[in-house]
Amino acid sequence: MPTDNDPYWKLRPPPPTPDDETCACTSVTPVVLQPHLSPNPLSCARCNLEVPPDRIRFDEHVADSLASWRDFHDCFYFLWLDSGEFEEWAKGHLRDPMSAVNTRGLELVAQINVFRRCYLWWF
Length: 123
Known about the structure:
Blueprint: E1 31-33, E2 42-44, H1 53-56, H2 60-82, H3 87-95, H4 100-113, E3 118-120
Parallel strand pairs: 1-3
Antiparallel strand pairs: 1-2
């Protein structure tokens, strides 16, 4: 959060997700793998709020894969958001079902499905 007292706020780690932005659904609902411009790319398929990974209880290998995919996806997403010379190129990769970013996303969805039903959000 910007502040006059901290000129380096953009370089600080993000604060934890507020409770009102975290899923509070009482039933076990599927999750959606989608970018949120936050560290956790998992949301509830019912309320669309963030689902804490510890609620799903996947193993460390899946957590590593999730972090890796998030960073890889965000490379394309930030290029698209920049609306500069790479916008169309990045959009093409985000929309192409056979692109590396979506292929890796589908592989990750298969890993998460072992723990809870998961879907990939399509750009």
